[in-house]
Amino acid sequence: MKNILFFSIAFILFLGCKEATNSSKAKVIENCTYWDFTDRDDQFTGGIKMIPIETPKGTFNVWTKRIGNNPTMKVLLLHGGPGFSHELFESFDGYLPQENIEYYYYDQLGSYYSDQPNDLSLWDLDRFVEEVEQVRVALGLHKDNFYLYGQSWGGILCMQYALKYQDNIKGLIISNMVASIADYMKYSDEVLAPQLPPEVLEEIMIYENKEDYQNKRYLDLIVEHYYSKHILRIPMEQWPNSINRSFAHVNYDVYVTMQGPSEFGVKGDATLKDWDVKDQLHKITVPTLTIGAEYDTMDPKHMEWISTEVQNGRYLHCPNGSHLSQYDDQEHFFPGLIKFIIDVDSGAF
């Protein structure tokens, strides 16, 4: 009797396997290939590769880590800051692998897992563009597979890269970044600041005017009333470990040199203070996705406008998201991002 029951179950399972669709079989095969490290030069390190970067001040190494295999969909992730780390993107692990999208974590020079030379002259936008190009070449990315994703400062970097090297790109993704620092500051001053309680804004501006940016009270006010509403709309005690690690690992030499000392905009002698490429966006011809969020520090209407200025754009709006919408609006962020990558890959964009 047991044997009859065993063979009956086995037969049912066999029929179920026989009836599986070709697409589901293909998915299984793709997933097996996706996780296969066989004969890869990064197998020993589990996908991690230190890439030597030539700079005017010598050769340094930057950290990258590959997730998955896909010959036609490879995404290089440019983190924000400047001076933060790839850890801001660790939520991607929950969404991209099941779509068989290959992607690369990457700590830019000066960031936590890469070399951190003590030379402020290296924190220069044009030099970072050349760094990205060297990373692209080292990873074997090219116009038939290379998607460049940049968020916040990474969005500045990917726009600047595309204006020089777009012939190497298959798809461009500009996330949570406008095309003008002046416009960002205007939005911050005229739209976001007035949303703060008047007494809070008044106290913040006292510290701002005195340039007392390291004052604990100033930082507490910014975190409580600004970060929790416009950076990541999750109670701070519930912030993901990956976000906390990235904040703990920030390189303030890079951050202050390029972004400035204020947590309330780009100020002081920051090298990015005058950055503006609005009048150059029309030169970008590659398929481009811009991502904006309702509660972002960046104006979502400006992000939508960028998608109409480039020659082949699409806009993704995250109605519940803020600056880190890959965490606080995953419901809209990841389906829209994945659809863009697959649409470009399939020719449906």
From TrEMBL:
The keyword Hydrolase applies. Belongs to the peptidase S33 family. GO terms for molecular function: hydrolase activity. Keywords: Hydrolase. This is Proline iminopeptidase-family hydrolase. Residues 75-329 form the AB hydrolase-1 domain. Gene3D superfamilies: alpha/beta hydrolase. Pfam families: Abhydrolase_1 (PF00561). The keyword Hydrolase applies. It comes from Gilvirhabdus luticola.
